From TrEMBL:
PANTHER family: CYTOCHROME C-TYPE BIOGENESIS PROTEIN HI_1454-RELATED. It is a multi-pass membrane protein. This is Cytochrome c-type biogenesis protein. The chain crosses the membrane at residues 12-33, 54-73, 93-112, 133-157, 169-190, 202-222. It comes from the Bacteria. It comes from Solirubrobacter pauli. It is found in: Membrane. GO terms for cellular component: membrane. InterPro entries: Cyt_c_assmbl_TM_dom, Cytochrome_c-biogenesis_DsbD. Belongs to the DsbD family.
Length: 248
């Protein structure tokens, strides 16, 4: 047996969810869902829609942006592998970057330019005409700068992985953190939009907690404690028979 995929994937999923609830993404979810499905917001609110007709395009949309993010993750790992002979230095550099991104994330509520809601109406309108596959790829490319602190955190972590496959898996879980709430919105639009309102009302607290998590992750990577935590987590999962991250 050898160690499997780093259990940092759990953090990657959480960071993906943090990206989803950011002011850059969350307000645009209904618009994107409407564009890729062809249903109006009024139809989705009323429930006057076919579930399959809205869910299938939403799945294609999510798979499309996942493919782009996974490619970015594998690229980051490939670049990081050139520094594998200086693994300790790479971990410290990546940890320092993640700490800086966490601090940057904490500052976003207090700097208007960093906390604005994006309203790219032209991009959303083109999402409908281009289909969910093109819309998903466009979302990944256009929103990469917008979700920079969270995406940058996972790309930095991916750069420290041993193989490009593991880097890709990290970004797949990051994408899953974005995709799950998006797909839940397609299935239960009214309930999820109500939850969105609660998240917006408590965004300051959520930002503080999320920023603290990013900084903690960076400090642990910088000091080497993240690797130790990963080993302990895999041992704990082994004891429970739930270590899905182990490969034979």
């Amino acid at each position: 047996m050898t160690g499997g995929v780093d259990t940092t994937v759990i953090a990657a999923f959480a960071v993906g969810f943090i990206s989803f609830i950011s002011p850059c993404v969350l307000p645009l979810v209904p618009g994107y869902l409407s564009a890729v499905s062809g249903y109006s917001l009024a139809d989705m609110k009323s429930g006057d829609r076919g579930l399959a007709k809205i869910l299938l395009p939403a799945i294609v949309f999510c798979l499309s942006f996942t493919a782009v993010f996974v490619a970015l993750g594998m690229t980051a790992t490939g670049l990081g592998s050139t520094l594998q002979d200086s693994r300790g230095t790479l971990d410290k550099v990546a940890g320092a970057i993640i700490i800086a991104l966490g601090v940057f994330f904490l500052l976003t509520p207090f700097v208007p330019r960093l906390n604005k809601e994006w309203r790219p109406d032209a991009l959303i309108s083109r999402a409908g005409s281009g289909g969910p596959l093109i819309a998903g790829a466009a979302f990944a490319v256009a929103w990469s700068p917008c979700v920079g602190p969270t995406l940058g955190t996972i790309l930095s972590a991916a750069a420290t992985q041993d193989t490009v496959g593991k880097g890709g898996i990290l970004l797949a879980f990051y994408s899953l953190g974005l995709a799950v709430p998006f797909l839940l919105t397609a299935v239960a639009f009214t309930r999820m939009t109500t939850a969105f309102a609660w998240l917006r009302n408590h965004y300051l607290i959520i930002t503080a907690i999320s920023g603290a998590i990013l900084i903690t992750m960076g400090v642990m990577l910088f000091t080497g404690e993240l690797a130790n935590l990963n080993i302990k987590a895999q041992e704990w999962l082994d004891d429970l028979g739930l270590n899905f991250f182990k490969s034979v």
